[in-house]
């Protein structure tokens, strides 16, 4: 009788051990999937591109040493952009008579005060950075009211980090308001300016693209260093 009880207990113990092993396996698999997908999500939102990748120089342009090649197939936020503060950069467009500080963000409360830098934009520099800026055309400061009048040969300037970056007008496009394509990086460094279109509506967006051609130390800072 005693032997029969012992034999009955052994299968129960084996089943319990098997159940414990199955649960442990499920926990380990779940933990692995969490780490894997959490890591992928983090890398998409806070991407630090590898400086080992370089952008080929355009014909007639000097090679860009240590240039960063950013992804062109998705939106992302760089640490540099996340740390950007209001007015650290200035946008100048002679054709529009515009000389304005660039604020951080493109929310309604930000654009009431001036032009704003998209969350997914990059800051000026080497490589294929897309400095994307939004502004109003008909309300508040209406900084981009005449945005549609930019034409071939017009220059735009960004003053940032003690340097002046020069961009030359490339093209104008009209897109749907939910089209994020213009904010994506291109194969070259550029400045993207966006606003509502037609004036007085939000039916579509006007997108002006200017290509980066040069950067130089600001003269006033260079003169100060020499004195």
TrEMBL record:
Show the stretches that span the lipid bilayer.
Answer: 12-34
A single MF term (Gene Ontology): hydrolase activity
Annotated active site residues, numbered on this chain, are 136 (proton donor/acceptor), 196 (acyl-thioester intermediate)
UniProt-listed SUPFAM superfamilies: Sortase (SSF63817)
Taken from the record, one Pfam family name reads Sortase
Keyword set includes Protease? no
Signal sequence, renumbered to the chain = none
Q: Does the keyword Zinc apply?
A: no
Q: Would you tell me the protein name for this molecule?
A: Sortase A
Q: Which organism is it from?
A: Harryflintia acetispora
Q: What is the lineage of its organism?
A: Bacteria, Bacillati, Bacillota, Clostridia, Eubacteriales
